[in-house]
# Entry
Amino acid sequence: MKILITGASEGIGLEIAKNLASKNNEITLVARSKENLEKAINSLQGKGHEVIVADLSKREDVDGLKQKIENNNYDVFINNAGVGMYGKFTEMPLADQVKMMNLNITALTVLSYFYLSTAKKGDALVNIASTLGTTSYPGGAVYAASKAFVTSLSESLWWEYKNKGIYVLGFCPGATYTNFHHVAGGDKDSFPKFAMQSPQQVVNELVRALENKKKPKVISGGINRFMVFVQKMMSRKMVMNMMAGFGPLKGQ
# Structure
């Protein structure tokens, strides 16, 4: 199969690429850094892989992927590119938060539109959301809200396209041992270790979901699924107090 993955030069995106490349798929990796992409592609098994350098927070780079998507008939498109920001809402630069929204929401929506406009029976679109997209997160308010958008969009698109034989999945990882938290301005150690997953564990669950093609939303990790279930029985005030205790604003 031909598979397109954004945000594929490191973290979960790169681990997805490695997993799927080992299954004799041809992978196209998209990310901002040419140097990191070259390192990433050299780590993949198999042949036929390629890279695209693009900053998907910029509309012109998003539009530049359109022709690639239309001309290559990718069997699977994994919308993984995204970024987080941790801190108090008005103490983080507004421009940076808007840029995050452009990447997490606008770029993902536009690329989903491009892909589904030409998708055929048997194709699959995976949008990487977050377990935080099923709740709210003091200290990461805009990030969590952006992932809630991704989760809701993906579930709706799953229904719209299921009778056409096109699978859409909103995949929700929890806290994962990657560089994401450091880049976002937080600390992965603020999350309880029992809830953390390795990138390999997360990707194994994603690949299983992609192979089964049944659910519109999959939450990665048994602990994360349990916590999401428990929150449904709690008041929103209780949930917010609990989530704040895991976040960058704990103790404030």
